[in-house]
Specification:
about 350 residues; 13-stranded mixed sheet; alpha/beta; 10 helices; single chain; TIM Barrel
Protein backbone atom coordinates (compact mmCIF):
# COMPACT_ATOMS: atom_id res chain seq x y z
CA UNK A 1 0.00 0.00 0.00
CA UNK A 2 1.36 3.41 -0.98
CA UNK A 3 1.06 6.75 0.75
CA UNK A 4 -1.36 7.88 -1.93
CA UNK A 5 -3.56 4.81 -1.35
CA UNK A 6 -4.26 5.95 2.22
CA UNK A 7 -4.66 9.61 1.35
CA UNK A 8 -1.31 10.69 2.78
CA UNK A 9 0.76 13.10 0.69
CA UNK A 10 3.98 11.73 -0.74
CA UNK A 11 5.70 15.05 0.05
CA UNK A 12 6.32 15.41 3.75
CA UNK A 13 9.20 17.69 4.62
CA UNK A 14 11.52 16.61 7.41
CA UNK A 15 12.13 20.23 8.33
CA UNK A 16 11.21 23.38 6.38
CA UNK A 17 13.78 26.00 5.56
CA UNK A 18 13.43 29.49 7.04
CA UNK A 19 16.11 31.15 4.90
CA UNK A 20 15.31 34.83 4.41
CA UNK A 21 12.48 34.87 6.93
CA UNK A 22 12.27 38.06 9.05
CA UNK A 23 12.70 37.68 12.81
CA UNK A 24 9.08 38.21 13.79
CA UNK A 25 6.93 35.97 15.99
CA UNK A 26 3.90 35.84 13.69
CA UNK A 27 3.26 33.24 10.99
CA UNK A 28 4.34 35.30 7.97
CA UNK A 29 4.97 33.95 4.50
CA UNK A 30 7.07 35.11 1.53
CA UNK A 31 4.12 37.03 0.10
CA UNK A 32 3.48 39.19 3.16
CA UNK A 33 0.45 37.30 4.44
CA UNK A 34 0.08 36.63 8.17
CA UNK A 35 -1.83 33.57 9.44
CA UNK A 36 -4.29 34.46 12.21
CA UNK A 37 -6.83 31.66 11.78
CA UNK A 38 -5.97 28.10 12.87
CA UNK A 39 -7.94 25.10 11.60
CA UNK A 40 -7.33 21.86 13.52
CA UNK A 41 -8.67 18.58 12.18
CA UNK A 42 -9.22 16.17 15.05
CA UNK A 43 -10.39 13.05 13.18
CA UNK A 44 -10.70 11.63 9.67
CA UNK A 45 -13.92 9.75 10.59
CA UNK A 46 -17.33 11.03 9.54
CA UNK A 47 -20.93 9.97 10.04
CA UNK A 48 -21.91 11.09 6.52
CA UNK A 49 -20.48 10.34 3.08
CA UNK A 50 -20.91 13.59 1.14
CA UNK A 51 -19.98 12.99 -2.48
CA UNK A 52 -17.79 16.12 -2.73
CA UNK A 53 -15.72 15.05 0.28
CA UNK A 54 -15.79 11.38 1.25
CA UNK A 55 -15.66 8.11 -0.67
CA UNK A 56 -18.67 5.82 -0.12
CA UNK A 57 -16.63 3.51 2.12
CA UNK A 58 -15.11 6.34 4.17
CA UNK A 59 -11.47 7.30 4.52
CA UNK A 60 -8.74 4.89 5.67
CA UNK A 61 -8.52 5.01 9.45
CA UNK A 62 -5.64 6.86 11.05
CA UNK A 63 -4.13 4.61 13.75
CA UNK A 64 -5.22 5.84 17.18
CA UNK A 65 -1.63 6.33 18.32
CA UNK A 66 -1.01 8.74 15.43
CA UNK A 67 -3.89 11.05 16.31
CA UNK A 68 -3.08 14.05 18.45
CA UNK A 69 -4.40 13.59 21.98
CA UNK A 70 -6.61 16.09 23.77
CA UNK A 71 -3.60 17.27 25.79
CA UNK A 72 -1.45 17.67 22.65
CA UNK A 73 -4.18 19.64 20.88
CA UNK A 74 -4.48 21.98 23.86
CA UNK A 75 -0.72 22.45 23.89
CA UNK A 76 -0.72 23.28 20.17
CA UNK A 77 -3.46 25.86 20.69
CA UNK A 78 -1.50 27.44 23.52
CA UNK A 79 1.59 27.74 21.30
CA UNK A 80 -0.43 29.11 18.40
CA UNK A 81 -2.16 31.78 20.47
CA UNK A 82 0.63 32.89 22.80
CA UNK A 83 3.69 32.54 20.56
CA UNK A 84 2.39 32.81 17.00
CA UNK A 85 -0.39 35.41 17.13
CA UNK A 86 -3.36 33.19 16.26
CA UNK A 87 -6.66 35.02 16.83
CA UNK A 88 -9.21 32.27 16.15
CA UNK A 89 -9.32 28.47 16.33
CA UNK A 90 -11.72 26.16 14.55
CA UNK A 91 -12.00 22.40 15.03
CA UNK A 92 -12.81 20.32 11.97
CA UNK A 93 -12.73 16.73 10.74
CA UNK A 94 -13.92 14.44 9.32
CA UNK A 95 -16.62 14.97 11.89
CA UNK A 96 -15.43 16.36 15.25
CA UNK A 97 -18.43 14.89 17.09
CA UNK A 98 -16.97 11.41 16.53
CA UNK A 99 -14.20 12.21 19.01
CA UNK A 100 -15.49 10.93 22.36
CA UNK A 101 -13.10 13.29 24.13
CA UNK A 102 -14.34 16.37 22.25
CA UNK A 103 -15.49 18.12 25.42
CA UNK A 104 -12.07 17.48 26.96
CA UNK A 105 -10.39 18.91 23.85
CA UNK A 106 -12.54 22.05 24.02
CA UNK A 107 -12.07 22.60 27.75
CA UNK A 108 -8.30 22.08 27.50
CA UNK A 109 -8.02 24.60 24.67
CA UNK A 110 -10.26 27.06 26.49
CA UNK A 111 -7.94 26.85 29.50
CA UNK A 112 -4.94 27.59 27.27
CA UNK A 113 -6.69 30.37 25.35
CA UNK A 114 -9.42 31.89 27.54
CA UNK A 115 -10.08 34.88 25.28
CA UNK A 116 -9.86 33.33 21.81
CA UNK A 117 -12.98 32.28 19.84
CA UNK A 118 -13.18 28.49 19.61
CA UNK A 119 -15.54 27.30 16.89
CA UNK A 120 -16.32 23.98 15.24
CA UNK A 121 -17.39 22.86 11.78
CA UNK A 122 -19.80 19.94 12.08
CA UNK A 123 -22.52 18.11 10.18
CA UNK A 124 -24.60 18.30 13.40
CA UNK A 125 -25.53 14.60 13.40
CA UNK A 126 -25.83 13.87 17.13
CA UNK A 127 -25.16 17.47 18.15
CA UNK A 128 -28.51 17.63 19.93
CA UNK A 129 -27.07 15.38 22.65
CA UNK A 130 -23.81 17.29 23.15
CA UNK A 131 -24.46 20.96 22.44
CA UNK A 132 -25.00 21.98 26.10
CA UNK A 133 -21.85 20.16 27.23
CA UNK A 134 -19.76 21.66 24.45
CA UNK A 135 -20.98 25.14 25.31
CA UNK A 136 -20.13 24.54 28.96
CA UNK A 137 -16.66 23.30 27.96
CA UNK A 138 -15.99 26.61 26.22
CA UNK A 139 -17.01 26.22 22.58
CA UNK A 140 -18.01 29.62 21.18
CA UNK A 141 -20.11 28.74 18.13
CA UNK A 142 -20.63 26.25 15.31
CA UNK A 143 -20.58 26.17 11.52
CA UNK A 144 -22.95 23.48 10.28
CA UNK A 145 -22.72 21.81 6.89
CA UNK A 146 -26.17 21.59 5.30
CA UNK A 147 -26.55 21.50 1.54
CA UNK A 148 -30.30 20.97 1.26
CA UNK A 149 -33.44 21.00 3.39
CA UNK A 150 -35.08 18.51 1.04
CA UNK A 151 -34.81 15.12 2.76
CA UNK A 152 -34.47 13.02 -0.40
CA UNK A 153 -31.91 15.38 -1.88
CA UNK A 154 -29.96 15.44 1.38
CA UNK A 155 -29.89 11.64 1.52
CA UNK A 156 -28.69 11.36 -2.07
CA UNK A 157 -25.86 13.85 -1.56
CA UNK A 158 -24.67 12.54 1.81
CA UNK A 159 -25.47 8.85 1.21
CA UNK A 160 -27.25 8.91 4.59
CA UNK A 161 -30.88 9.73 5.52
CA UNK A 162 -29.98 11.91 8.50
CA UNK A 163 -31.61 15.28 7.81
CA UNK A 164 -33.91 15.11 10.89
CA UNK A 165 -30.86 14.61 13.13
CA UNK A 166 -29.06 17.54 11.51
CA UNK A 167 -32.06 19.85 12.01
CA UNK A 168 -32.33 18.74 15.64
CA UNK A 169 -28.63 19.49 16.07
CA UNK A 170 -29.08 22.97 14.63
CA UNK A 171 -31.92 23.69 17.06
CA UNK A 172 -29.83 22.39 19.96
CA UNK A 173 -26.85 24.54 18.98
CA UNK A 174 -29.02 27.64 18.92
CA UNK A 175 -30.59 26.70 22.25
CA UNK A 176 -27.17 26.18 23.85
CA UNK A 177 -25.98 29.62 22.76
CA UNK A 178 -23.47 28.37 20.17
CA UNK A 179 -24.31 31.38 18.04
CA UNK A 180 -24.32 32.76 15.50
CA UNK A 181 -25.11 29.41 13.89
CA UNK A 182 -23.60 29.57 10.41
CA UNK A 183 -24.80 27.20 7.70
CA UNK A 184 -22.33 26.12 5.01
CA UNK A 185 -23.73 24.74 1.73
CA UNK A 186 -21.55 23.38 -1.07
CA UNK A 187 -22.87 24.27 -4.51
CA UNK A 188 -23.70 21.14 -6.52
CA UNK A 189 -25.63 20.77 -9.79
CA UNK A 190 -28.32 18.67 -8.09
CA UNK A 191 -28.93 21.23 -5.31
CA UNK A 192 -28.83 24.46 -7.33
CA UNK A 193 -32.59 24.46 -7.95
CA UNK A 194 -33.21 24.24 -4.20
CA UNK A 195 -30.71 26.94 -3.22
CA UNK A 196 -33.41 29.59 -2.83
CA UNK A 197 -35.41 27.25 -0.57
CA UNK A 198 -32.35 26.75 1.63
CA UNK A 199 -31.80 30.50 1.85
CA UNK A 200 -35.46 31.04 2.69
CA UNK A 201 -35.23 28.43 5.45
CA UNK A 202 -32.12 30.08 6.93
CA UNK A 203 -33.75 33.52 6.83
CA UNK A 204 -36.83 32.13 8.58
CA UNK A 205 -34.78 30.54 11.37
CA UNK A 206 -32.24 33.33 11.79
CA UNK A 207 -29.17 31.44 10.60
CA UNK A 208 -26.32 32.87 8.50
CA UNK A 209 -25.99 31.01 5.20
CA UNK A 210 -22.84 30.78 3.12
CA UNK A 211 -22.72 28.97 -0.20
CA UNK A 212 -19.35 27.49 -1.21
CA UNK A 213 -18.18 26.68 -4.71
CA UNK A 214 -17.23 23.03 -4.99
CA UNK A 215 -13.46 22.62 -4.93
CA UNK A 216 -11.31 19.77 -6.30
CA UNK A 217 -11.03 18.13 -2.88
CA UNK A 218 -13.27 15.10 -3.36
CA UNK A 219 -11.79 11.73 -2.44
CA UNK A 220 -12.81 10.16 -5.76
CA UNK A 221 -11.07 12.92 -7.79
CA UNK A 222 -14.12 13.36 -10.04
CA UNK A 223 -14.28 17.16 -9.78
CA UNK A 224 -14.23 18.99 -13.11
CA UNK A 225 -14.29 22.74 -13.67
CA UNK A 226 -16.82 22.31 -16.48
CA UNK A 227 -19.33 20.60 -14.16
CA UNK A 228 -19.13 22.85 -11.11
CA UNK A 229 -21.78 25.42 -10.17
CA UNK A 230 -20.32 28.93 -10.11
CA UNK A 231 -21.14 31.90 -7.90
CA UNK A 232 -22.55 33.68 -10.95
CA UNK A 233 -24.99 30.83 -11.62
CA UNK A 234 -26.07 30.81 -7.99
CA UNK A 235 -26.68 34.57 -7.96
CA UNK A 236 -28.89 34.22 -11.02
CA UNK A 237 -31.02 31.56 -9.28
CA UNK A 238 -31.28 33.45 -5.98
CA UNK A 239 -32.07 36.75 -7.69
CA UNK A 240 -35.20 35.23 -9.23
CA UNK A 241 -36.69 35.10 -5.72
CA UNK A 242 -34.77 37.62 -3.63
CA UNK A 243 -33.40 41.13 -4.14
CA UNK A 244 -29.66 40.92 -3.50
CA UNK A 245 -27.44 43.92 -2.84
CA UNK A 246 -23.70 43.28 -2.87
CA UNK A 247 -21.81 44.59 0.16
CA UNK A 248 -18.48 42.79 -0.35
CA UNK A 249 -16.36 41.31 2.43
CA UNK A 250 -16.58 42.39 6.07
CA UNK A 251 -12.85 41.66 6.39
CA UNK A 252 -10.27 41.39 3.55
CA UNK A 253 -9.21 37.98 4.86
CA UNK A 254 -12.79 36.71 5.16
CA UNK A 255 -13.52 34.24 2.34
CA UNK A 256 -17.22 35.08 1.96
CA UNK A 257 -18.48 37.92 -0.20
CA UNK A 258 -21.80 39.10 1.18
CA UNK A 259 -25.12 40.31 -0.20
CA UNK A 260 -28.00 41.95 1.66
CA UNK A 261 -31.22 40.00 1.14
CA UNK A 262 -34.33 42.06 0.33
CA UNK A 263 -32.71 45.18 1.73
CA UNK A 264 -31.33 43.51 4.87
CA UNK A 265 -30.44 43.30 7.61
CA UNK A 266 -30.07 39.57 6.87
CA UNK A 267 -27.33 38.53 4.48
CA UNK A 268 -26.16 35.63 2.39
CA UNK A 269 -22.51 34.86 1.75
CA UNK A 270 -20.79 33.19 -1.19
CA UNK A 271 -17.33 31.68 -0.94
CA UNK A 272 -16.22 31.59 -4.58
CA UNK A 273 -12.98 29.72 -3.98
CA UNK A 274 -12.58 28.76 -7.62
CA UNK A 275 -13.96 31.62 -9.74
CA UNK A 276 -13.09 34.52 -7.41
CA UNK A 277 -9.95 33.31 -5.71
CA UNK A 278 -8.95 35.04 -2.46
CA UNK A 279 -5.58 33.33 -1.99
CA UNK A 280 -3.82 36.71 -1.86
CA UNK A 281 -5.60 37.50 1.42
CA UNK A 282 -5.48 34.02 2.97
CA UNK A 283 -4.81 34.10 6.74
CA UNK A 284 -5.13 30.39 7.57
CA UNK A 285 -2.81 27.76 8.92
CA UNK A 286 -3.85 24.15 9.31
CA UNK A 287 -3.00 21.14 11.42
CA UNK A 288 -4.13 17.68 10.32
CA UNK A 289 -5.51 15.10 12.73
CA UNK A 290 -2.18 13.27 12.70
CA UNK A 291 -0.24 16.41 13.61
CA UNK A 292 1.04 17.72 10.27
CA UNK A 293 1.35 21.45 9.60
CA UNK A 294 -0.30 22.28 6.29
CA UNK A 295 0.18 25.82 5.04
CA UNK A 296 -2.25 25.60 2.12
CA UNK A 297 -5.39 23.56 1.54
CA UNK A 298 -4.14 22.55 -1.91
CA UNK A 299 -0.48 21.88 -1.21
CA UNK A 300 0.73 18.35 -0.55
CA UNK A 301 3.72 19.67 1.41
CA UNK A 302 3.25 18.88 5.09
CA UNK A 303 5.60 19.22 8.03
CA UNK A 304 5.55 16.98 11.06
CA UNK A 305 4.78 18.69 14.36
CA UNK A 306 3.69 15.57 16.22
CA UNK A 307 7.02 13.73 16.21
CA UNK A 308 9.19 16.54 17.62
CA UNK A 309 6.48 17.30 20.17
CA UNK A 310 6.51 13.68 21.37
CA UNK A 311 10.31 13.61 21.27
CA UNK A 312 10.57 16.40 23.83
CA UNK A 313 10.76 19.61 21.80
CA UNK A 314 9.80 22.64 23.89
CA UNK A 315 7.17 25.20 22.90
CA UNK A 316 9.73 27.61 21.43
CA UNK A 317 11.17 24.90 19.15
CA UNK A 318 7.72 23.86 17.94
CA UNK A 319 6.79 27.49 17.28
CA UNK A 320 9.94 28.00 15.23
CA UNK A 321 9.21 24.89 13.14
CA UNK A 322 5.69 26.19 12.50
CA UNK A 323 7.03 29.60 11.46
CA UNK A 324 9.37 27.99 8.96
CA UNK A 325 6.57 25.85 7.53
CA UNK A 326 4.37 28.88 6.95
CA UNK A 327 7.25 30.86 5.43
CA UNK A 328 7.15 28.31 2.59
CA UNK A 329 3.43 28.75 1.85
CA UNK A 330 2.34 28.75 -1.79
CA UNK A 331 1.15 31.94 -3.52
CA UNK A 332 -2.17 30.27 -4.34
CA UNK A 333 -3.96 27.09 -5.34
CA UNK A 334 -3.48 27.53 -9.11
CA UNK A 335 -6.72 25.79 -10.08
CA UNK A 336 -6.74 27.62 -13.41
CA UNK A 337 -3.19 26.55 -14.29
CA UNK A 338 -2.73 23.97 -17.04
CA UNK A 339 -0.61 21.78 -14.77
CA UNK A 340 -2.93 21.98 -11.73
CA UNK A 341 -3.18 18.72 -9.79
CA UNK A 342 -5.57 18.29 -6.85
CA UNK A 343 -4.05 17.38 -3.48
CA UNK A 344 -3.79 13.73 -2.57
CA UNK A 345 -5.72 14.25 0.67
CA UNK A 346 -9.41 14.98 0.27
CA UNK A 347 -11.19 17.66 2.30
CA UNK A 348 -12.24 15.06 4.87
CA UNK A 349 -8.64 14.09 5.49
CA UNK A 350 -7.23 17.63 5.53
CA UNK A 351 -9.93 19.30 7.61
CA UNK A 352 -12.37 21.94 6.40
Amino acid sequence: MTLVDVGIPAVRGARPTAAGRPEVPELVDRFGRVARDLRISITEKCSLRCTYCMPAEGLPAIPAEELLTAEEIARVVGIAVHLLGIHEVRFTGGEPLLRRDLEQIISGCREKAPDVPLSMTTNAVGLQHRAPGLAEAGLSRVNISLDSVDRAEFAQLTRRDRLPSVLAGIRAAHGAGLTPVKINAVLMPQTLAGAADLLGWCLEHGHELRFIEEMPLDADHEWARTNMVTAAQLLEVLSARFTLTEVGRSDPAAPAEQWLVDGGPQRVGIIASVTRSFCGDCDRTRLTADGMIRSCLFSDREFDLRTPMRNGADDAELAQLWRAAMWNKWAGHGIDAADFAPPERSMGAIGG
